[in-house]
Amino acid sequence: MNVTLRYFASVREAMGTGTEQLDTAATTLAALRAELVARGGAGAEALAPGRAVRMALDQVMSPESAPLTSGCEVAFFPPVTGG
User: Is the Cβ–Cβ distance between 22 and 2 less than 8 Å?
Assistant: First the structure.
């Protein structure tokens, strides 16, 4: 399925982009995060297990167990962002 990914604050800096489209086989936020970590690089470190990262699914804060749907938007950001 195709999903839109959005990255904010320090996660955005590590990923090197603010947004991307991704074709994924992941069915949950946790599986998607693991897939992104498996790509390696600075983004993998930013999203690594144990790192404080909040996730929103279609603009609603969601647990890692939340199911993905085709065309959904997933946002990753640190727990505190400045304005």
Answer: yes
Residue 28 and residue 3 in contact, taking contact as beta carbons nearer than 8 Å? no
Dihedral pair phi/psi, residue 49, rounded to 5°: -55, 140
The model's pLDDT over 51-78, given as tens digits with 9 standing for 90+, comes to 999 999 999 999 999 999 999 999 999 8
pTM: 0.91
Note whether 24 and 35 are within 8 A (CB).
Answer: yes
Write the DSSP string, 13-33.
HHHT-SEEEEE----BHHHHH
Long-range contacts of 31-40 (CB under 8 A, 24+ apart): 31/68, 32/3, 32/68, 32/74, 33/64, 33/76, 36/5
